[in-house]
Amino acid sequence: MHETQTSPLPAKDAGALLDGLAPLNHLGVIRLQGDDAAKFIHGQLTQDFALLGLDQARLAAFCSAKGRMQASFIGFKRSATEILLVCSRDLLPATLKRLSMFVMRAKVQLSDASGEWTLCGLAGAAVHDFAGLPEAPWSLARNSEAMAVRLYPALGVARALWLAPAGTALPDAPALATETWLWSEVQSGIATLTQPVFEAFVPQMLNYESVGGVNFKKGCYPGQEVVARSQFRGTLKRRAFLTHAKGLLTPGQEVFSSGDASQPVGLVVQSAAAPHGGWDALVSLQLSALESGTLHVGSASGDELAILPLPYALLEDI
Question: Measured over all CA atoms, what is the biggest interatomic distance in the chain, rounded to whole angstroms?
Answer without folding.
Answer: 57
